[in-house]
Design goal:
The protein is an alpha/beta fold. 42% of the residues lie in helices and 15% in strands. The strands form two sheets. Strands 3-2-1-4-9-6-10 form a seven-stranded mixed β-sheet, with helices on both faces. It has a four-stranded mixed β-sheet with strand order 5-11-7-8. Helix 8 packs across helix 10. The protein is globular.
């Protein structure tokens, strides 16, 4: 059994894949495997991965016959993983030399289910360290205690799968797979499930992953219909949280986060194609209508005036556009 499996999805990132692959080379060990998942790229990415499979120690090239999205690509890697520990990297990001070994040493020393790491956000030439929004460092805790409070950024608001490392027992328990087919926000139901159902975690700092922002092929830069998968992702967060034994305690956080993401998308609605912008308005109205209305009332009362007013307007469209209502 390898000590560590690293799942790395790629899709049309021939410009950036060499940086990711070189960083894996600078992290390689005899007991590491790198699962390179090509999600049916149409550029030069497959050739780069074929070469890496021959030259990069521990590399395994897996190829999709059709594009399935990031969640599905990660699941393909997880299904093939043999390691005692697991980690993720995206094909347009890169690692500092030795980062994987340092993170592995930390999780083994702490003997917990998973660790979360800081990262470096890279926008052009700008570099900014992004911290795990959790106070104690290198202290093992119950992940459930890191979900709240509702009105402050917490560990579930730092959903990046690649910002951490995970023991295989989480995979065996069914906690590491992503919701099949989600093309954006795939890590939101995933991080909530980890924090509800895993038994132990720790934040360990170590900002050794470099997260590239502003990539033209990234869904964060493309205003097409795939962006609207955040609705399905957060519907799942709400549904799973409502079934939790502590739903009364956790639902305000889930609803508030969902509302904040809706408001965020409305704040940059001009980047969406016109048809997608219309769907965003309609689907957001429906989503607000599906939320527990008593919890939603409390959340809107507690938010800042600008976002609260926006969300109340979006919510109000449900009444004015209902069958039989006056337009």
């Amino acid at each position: 059994m390898p000590k560590l499996s690293v799942v790395v999805p790629f899709y049309n990132v021939q410009t950036y894949a060499p940086d990711a692959l070189k960083s894996l080379e600078l992290n390689a060990r005899d007991d590491f495997e790198f699962l390179l998942v090509d999600d049916c790229s149409t550029d030069g990415t497959p050739g780069l991965l074929e070469r890496a499979a021959r030259e990069l120690p521990g590399a395994v090239h897996l190829r999709h016959g059709r594009n399935g999205g990031l969640a599905t690509a990660r699941n393909t890697g997880l299904d093939a993983a043999n390691g005692e520990y697991l980690a993720f990297l995206d094909g347009d990001d890169w690692l500092a030399p030795g980062h994987l070994a340092r993170t592995l040493a930390a999780i083994e020393a702490l003997n917990c289910d998973f660790v979360r790491t800081d990262h470096v956000k890279c926008t052009g030439r700008s570099r900014t360290v992004q911290r795990v929004p959790y106070g104690p460092e290198a202290v093992v805790a119950d992940p459930r205690t890191a979900i709240l409070p509702a009105d402050r950024a917490t560990s579930v608001d730092y959903p990046y799968a690649w910002a951490g490392m995970y023991h295989r027992r989480l995979l065996d328990r069914g906690l590491l797979h992503f919701t099949h087919g989600l093309r954006t926000a795939e890590d939101r139901p995933w991080i909530w499930r980890l924090h509800r159902e895993a038994e132990s975690f720790a934040a360990v700092g170590m900002p050794g992953i470099f997260y590239r922002r502003g990539v033209a092929t990234s869904l964060t830069q493309i205003g097409d219909e795939r962006q609207l998968d955040f609705i399905r992702a957060f519907d799942q967060v709400l549904s799973d949280t409502a079934a939790d034994v502590e739903s009364d305690l956790l639902l305000p956080k889930a609803v508030r986060t969902y509302c904040a993401i809706i408001a965020h998308h409305f704040g940059s609605i001009e980047r969406f194609e016109p048809d997608v912008a219309r769907k965003l308005r309609s689907m957001s109205t429906d989503a607000l209508g599906r939320m527990p209305q008593d919890v939603l009332d409390l959340v809107l009362d507690s938010m800042d005036v600008e976002r609260s007013a926006l969300l109340r307007r979006v919510r109000g469209r449900r009444r004015t556009t209902a069958p039989g209502a006056n337009a």
